[in-house]
Amino acid sequence: MRSGEKIPMIYSGIAKSKSAAAIPLFKSGKPSHSKYCPEAEQILIPQGFEGCAVVAGIAGGFHIKNLLSRKGISLVIAAEADAESLAFCRSLETVRAMEKDARLILCDKDALAETLCKRYIPSLYKNLTLAFQRAWKDENESCAKEIEAAVQKSLETISADFSVQAHFGKIWQRNILLNLQFMSENAIPAFSPEGMQHKTAAIIAAGPSLDKSAAQIKGGGFFVVSTDTAYGTLLRSGIEPDAVVSIDAQHVSSEHFFCCKPGGKTLFVFDICANPEAVRLVFSRGNRIQFVRSSHPLSAAAAEACSLPLIEPGAGTVTVAAADWARQAGFRKMQFFGADFAYSFGKPYAKGTYLEKQSMQSSFRLNDAETQFSSLMFRTALEKASSSGQPGTGTAAHTTAILKNYRQSLSDWAQRHSFKSDGTGTLYSGSEKAPSVRSSCGLFSYRSFLTDFLSGIKKLMNTECAPEDFLSDKWGTALLPFLSFFKDCPLSDSLSRAYSHVLRYKMPV
Predict the structure, then answer these.
(1) How far apart are CA 223 and CA 233, in angstroms?
(2) What is the pLDDT of residue 487?
(3) Fewest beta carbons within 10 Å, which of 222, 270, 281, 446?
(4) Closest C-alpha among 245, 383, 244 to residue 314
């Protein structure tokens, strides 16, 4: 059977073992378990393994029942060849009884990748292993290979996401707590975008083609929404944007705002995860700010007590975040500038970004700015970029896997929200939308929020709850990105460290 071809129902009926247990028969007539004592069947997983086990082959479920009885097994995802075979297995009394265990998830082969990405959380379940029911694998070699490939591909996706959370988990939590504290201590004027939506929103990214767009942006009568990276480039060209969006958590992002004007017209939109030094710098110069949130679960918990409009950052690119802020402000027409998602004209960024200043300042004879920019561009494999339907990619543009992912993220965002492209970098939406990024200046008690957060962590520490209970708890979910920072540390130790970390941001009595 060719890979990817639909697999028919793999079972033909039921046989009885010597102990009167129901044993599924394969189409070949062979039993899926021993006819003598199927209840004793074990799955081949090393002794002492702790974490999540993916089991290929459900059959009568005896091996899975024994696996769930082993100490240290926190989650079992068992996959069957197809939906019909899965339904057959679920009709068996042994399998129905097993499904009452919250640690067990049953699915078919086609749903395995999605199930794994949704349910396997490395910070909670730690290790993962794949095991096969032996008789099932012998009868379904093609299906077994597809399951192995699906697990491998899913792990690549999960690993990429987990590595980001492990790197940024601690930074995100620190930033959220400091920004929430800032909100409670400062009067932030209310913001409403009404009255602006008749204009076209110019979404400004920092791609090299932005160097050639200054005159068009100046004379276009746009409502200019800049990404933080492009902010310095616009000021250098004499353009003061109407809004600047920043989602970057790193300290280096504060350098985007060293050039910000005191008391200008610009509204600075910060993700609550954004760098707090940048927030304080902009606010100290008398500028307007607005906090929004993306998908971080701690910011979702905070949003229950304060006004934090939700925006979409796509695959983590500020260009999509800026576009989504404009969408929620009610703009139905957007034109993109500098959204190359490629290294155009032999450069990684437009002139005037903080990277250019950084490279110029650290330049010397044996490591000049051009060498540094080349190192940035060639740090990962390059490929020729397609310029069809994309603004300003220029000639001889090259891209990378990450930049292609960002481009696709913008395309997916536009499709999701019914924006159509005219092929020149302009997106249109035919639907009217009332502004939904209003913010209010209502009072927010950081002290009360932090007290609740600490109490929630303490409760999790004292109850020794299972991962499933952890996921159903608001504060447990809020901690997940931070717990990724501790990687292989046991969950109980991770919680203790999380509690100590949060205590550092407690307001003085």
Answers:
(1) 17
(2) 76
(3) 281
(4) 245
CA 297 to chain centre: 11
Here the tokens at position 22 are 């129901």
What is the token pair recorded at 65? 């029942």
Can you tell me the distance from the alpha carbon of 231 to that of 196, in angstroms, rounded to the nearest whole number? Answer: 20
Give the Cα separation of 24 and 12 in Å (integer). 8
Nearest-angstrom CA–CA distance, 180 and 302: 8
d(CA 295, CA 306): 16
In tens, the pLDDT along 124-155 reads 888 899 999 999 999 999 999 999 999 999 99
Q: Which residue has the tokens 């005037």?
A: 352
**What ranges in 306-379 are assigned the alpha helix state H?**
318-328, 354-361, 369-377
Q: Are 170 and 485 contacting, i.e. CB atoms less than 8 angstroms apart?
A: yes
Q: Which residues pair with 132 in a beta bridge?
A: 56
Residue that is written with structure tokens 């520490």 in the block: 461
Task: Find, among 299, 296, 311, the residue nearest to 453 by Cα.
Answer: 299
Per-residue tokens: 52: 């999540």
CA of 383: how far to CAs of 126, 157, 380, 401, 402, in Å? 36, 22, 10, 9, 11
Instruction: State both tokens at 297.
Output: 């679960």
CA 500 to chain CA centroid, Å, is 26
Q: Which tokens is 406 given? A: 């960002």
Q: Which residue has the higher pLDDT, 234 or 441?
A: 234
Question: What is the model's pTM?
Answer: 0.82
Using alpha carbons, select from 26, 23, 20 the residue that is nearest to residue 62: 23
Four-residue CA torsion sign, 68, 70, 75, 81: negative
Kind plus residue range of the DSSP H or E element containing 337: strand 333-337
Q: Is the pLDDT of residue 263 over 70?
A: yes
Under 8 Å between Cβ of 305 and 444? yes
DSSP one-letter code for 314: T
Give the Å distances, CA to CA, from 427 to 82, 245, 333, 422: 41, 19, 6, 7
Q: Contact at 8 Å (CB) between 299 and 293?
A: yes
Q: pLDDT tens for residues 281-337?
A: 999 999 999 999 998 999 999 999 888 999 999 878 899 999 999 999 989 999 999
**Residue type at 316 in one-letter notation:** G
Q: SS3 string of 186-254?
A: CCCCCECCCCCCCCCEEEECCCHHHHHCHHHHHHCCCEEEEEHHHHHHHHHCCCCCCEEEECCCCHHHH
> Can you tell me which residue has the tokens 């300290």?
251
Helix axes 491-503, 446-463, angle to 10 degrees: 160
